[in-house]
Structures
1.
Amino acid sequence: MHQTRLIIETLKLELRKQQKTYKHVAEKLELSEASVKRLFAEESLSLNRLDNICELLQLEFSDLVSLMEENISFTTELSLAQENELVSDIKLLLMAHFLINGLRFSDITDNYTITETEGIQLLAKLDRMKIIELLPGNRVKMIISKNFQWIKHGPIQSFYKTVIQPEFLNSSFTLPGEFQVFTSGMLTRTSNTELIKKIKRLSKELNEMNTTDQSSELEQKFGTSLMIAMRPWEPDIFHQLRRVEPKKHF
């Protein structure tokens, strides 16, 4: 499954590089665009369809595998010390965050209180951490894998939970561009699994939109966060009214 995911991610990268869209893929595979999006989201492309997409990109399947192996060498996770370094230096964290999201160095120094000298020092740190490769002219090349993840329950995730999440939720969610919904139901394990798949698909779609929008001018873009959480759960105020402790467990 891990290899399949890497192949699909490499395919997406090549499509973007060659400015090919899902519409081009749909025409090649003689499918609807919606069907192609679903195949990519579910990572369920057959070998025959992979071959056809490679043909569209003028690549041999072996070329795609080679590109995938190059991506594997990218940074997939930071060390505990590196994550601690990020959360202990807000300017370093800010620089990493915006570079990962496609902003130019000049965009960051023009809009935030970071001097060019400070910025170059921050870039050098991120280069040592193998998040970026620092190029001449303060240009950067991202060298983190598409499968990059923060350490589970590590410093970054803890920082998010204690600092970012409460601030994000401290909103009425009624302003333009804001939305909030809370829905409950009684679901089977099968429905729960299906819903989680759809949530993951939505998260991937946001990441793809973020990549697509990197070519847009900064004035047209807004920092946007999406938070979705789901769990089998009963509010304590209801649980206290139960006659007996339920025997079923998820």
2.
Amino acid sequence: DSSNLALVAGALSLGIGFGLQNVVSNFVSGLILLAERPFKVGDWIVAGDVSGTVRKISVRATEIETFQRQSVILPNSNLINNAAGNWTHRNKLGRVEIKVGVAYGSDVKRVHAVLLDIARAHPMVLKNPEPFVLFANFGAAALEFEIRVFVADIMNSSVVQNDIRFAIFDIFEDERIEIPSTPRAMVETTKHEAWPIDDDKIEAEFAERQRLEEEAAAERERLAKMKRRGRKPDPG
């Protein structure tokens, strides 16, 4: 009858509504992204665990290419409802950090000066804002420093970090500044006697064990005979 038909139609409408909810949400989110433009094609963004360059923005999803050249399709609702960082939103200027530790006992003022010279010497490092070296912490195994520099294009951050680390390694070696290694746990091992490979030795050890077993058996037999006779065993 008509009441049952209306009930079925209502249930179908409800199911379709729930099914289309994500589609509509992504569509509306896509319109918001296209209107507000929090990022554009070519920007370097970070959304959750995904970091890469925006390749395409559609009304349903956004395509991001990671630095491993993997294409990741993110629903637009994820980008609207969750925090997303944009490294190149207004410009490509960005700060790069390089951490390094030196051994306790090092001349910290000399270390600071050497690191600052290394940072200033790199051609991609900006003069303004000028490089800065922070004496960051007294670590468990090292005195910790951090170089902070600004580059005109944050996409070159890996190149700058790589070059500065190579320079640190070379110049520290010349200046006799030690970079301590992480202490490794010492594992104590038990020395085992090498397995005998001399056949004569094996035979001699077998004969000795057999002799001891025979002596023990003879002693047990002697004690048993004395017990049957009712005598106390003689000592020795």
3.
Amino acid sequence: MNRIKDLATKVATSDSTVLLTGESGTGKELFARGIHNNSARNKHPFVAVNCVAIPDELFESEMFGYEAGAFSGARRDGKPGKVELAQNGTLFLDEISELSYASQGKLLRVLQEREVDRLGGVRSKTVNIRVVAATNKNLKQLVTEGKFREDLYYRLYVFDLHVPPLRERERDVLILIEHYIHEFNQSLGKQVIEVADDLKKVGNVLQMARECSGVEV
């Protein structure tokens, strides 16, 4: 695990795309935030996108934004997309394997051209972002099955970091418990000093966050 952390720290100093792999709940977003926080972009936004939560028909408006009057119900002043919001910072694409083949192609163009077209817009906007993507699936296998674009795969596969499950990272457990307890203490104005031993045996980071929340309440 120390090797993975050391590699993540080294990767943070570059500006290359990073692909984080591993089971669900291993803390890939925490790793992504760590890479961002240790990079030269740490004064700029970290924008996390849950690819599962974006319907295919809303992909362009959510990711690339839209201009005023682009469609019925559009905001009068338009809206920037996730890509624009991450300008000069880091765009984290969680569960990127869940994007449709069509959406993958639209994302690929942005990564290649480094520009984005808002819906209803008349000119492209140049973007300067670093992309960190994450998946719990084997993208190479999905490429073979025709479910993931090969060109996008190689665009993402610059640095590949596999994040082990929490059950294999005993040293991280107490650190993460302290992190979440501190967060919930601050949000709820409570102070928890000790936690049950069972909490130290949870299977993944998402479960740990829920368990720590339960301790607070």
